[in-house]
Write a structure and sequence with these properties.
alpha+beta, 2 domains, 15 helices, two-stranded antiparallel sheet, disordered C terminus, elongated, about 350 residues
Length: about 350
């Protein structure tokens, strides 16, 4: 594996990255449909970091606008067109009425309506661009100076570029840096998989989240972020990398997955006979372990039994699909009842709280 300081742009493919994640684990990724897909790792800082964040924010806004005119949101465009036709018909009728007014009425109308309207229009033409520019600059500055953002994959900017910020990573170990590349590469795989199989990305349901988890309002935004389906998956992927390096295998059942999860977040291994051993798993990124621990500790008691099977189990099966381990994914999914907790949280079926009990 390369050192981050060696090159500003490094080209790799998924097979090389998964080989680095799972040493001597070719059985894991030999059938991965994306193993030959190339991606780039960009190490940027200074002016290039600022430029990248400008592109990122702008692309994010453009992507949002595209969503609004997506075929599933076509009713919005149709509604705007209908409103436009209605407004123009009213303006035409008003113009005919204006032409019929006497001179005094026309002057009076001009003073109380037209002049204030022109002033307001000029104000908006100056105020709105200034406000948008201010928001843009704030967004760019916030992202470029945020020390917690040390890597990114933004498909709306570049579908094959993982961006790493070496200046922000300088205080971390080499293994931690590699875990960041692992994290962002998995986002690249998720995006590639969703595109190839035309899978629509669903958003986390706030209603279901509040029903299943007990969340401190002070961390609500962060909790919603790490519980996002893709973010949760990449944290489980990092857990699997650590588990594989310790034991040379992946969990073969939901029971083994639960043991793996608990060992990762607690740092201890239980043998089922009451004996406790120090975990063999070595953290590369303790933040991921903290995130998985936070999610686990926030589950409401009534969902303790289904959390591992119906949520973590489903996300694990998704990861197995990414790796190309379809047969192993089918084994795991055969243990999971449906409809399940994952489907409710990520709005793949209509959420009704009564259906979760």
């Amino acid at each position: 594996m390369f050192t981050l300081k060696e090159k500003r742009v490094v080209k790799l493919n998924t097979l090389q990255q998964l080989s680095a994640d799972f040493p001597n684990g070719n059985w894991i990724y030999d059938n991965c449909v994306f193993k030959n897909r190339e991606f780039e790792i960009h190490n940027i800082s200074g002016f290039f970091l600022l430029l990248h964040e400008m592109k990122s924010v702008f692309a994010g806004w453009i992507f949002f606008l595209k969503v609004l005119i997506d075929k599933k949101e076509r009713y919005i465009v149709d509604g705007v067109r209908a409103d436009y036709r209605y407004a123009t018909s009213k303006l035409r009728a008003f113009w005919l009425l204006f032409l019929e007014m006497n001179l005094f009425d026309k002057v009076f109308f001009f003073l109380i309506a037209v002049i204030p309207a022109i002033v307001m229009l000029l104000f908006l033409l100056i105020y709105l661009p200034t406000k948008i520019l201010y928001m843009f600059i704030c967004s760019v500055w916030k992202k470029s100076t945020n020390k917690t953002i040390i890597g990114s994959f933004n498909f709306s900017v570049n579908e094959r570029a993982i961006v790493i910020y070496p200046n922000k990573l300088s205080r971390y170990s080499e293994e931690y840096k590699k875990s960041i590349i692992t994290h962002e590469h998995m986002h690249f795989i998720q995006h590639s998989y969703k595109n190839k199989f035309s899978i629509k990305i669903k958003q986390l349901s706030d209603t279901a989240m509040d029903y299943v988890f007990s969340i401190d309002e002070s961390i609500r935004g962060y909790f919603s972020y790490i519980l996002d389906e893709h973010e949760f998956e990449v944290r489980i992927h990092e857990m699997l990398v650590c588990y594989y390096r310790a034991y040379g295998k992946l969990p073969g059942s939901l029971s083994e997955l639960e043991t793996c999860y608990l060992e990762y977040i607690l740092g201890e291994n239980y043998d089922g006979k009451g004996n406790v051993y120090t975990s063999k798993m070595i953290y590369r990124n303790e933040t991921h372990a903290d995130d998985l621990r936070l999610i686990y500790m926030s589950v409401r008691p009534e969902f303790d039994e289904v959390f591992m099977s119906e949520l973590v189990g489903v996300l694990y099966a998704n990861l197995l699909d990414y790796y190309g381990l379809d047969w192993k994914s089918m084994v795991i999914r055969s243990e999971i009842a449906g409809p399940n907790l994952s489907a409710y949280l990520y709005q793949k079926i209509v959420f009704r709280s009564s259906m979760l009990l």
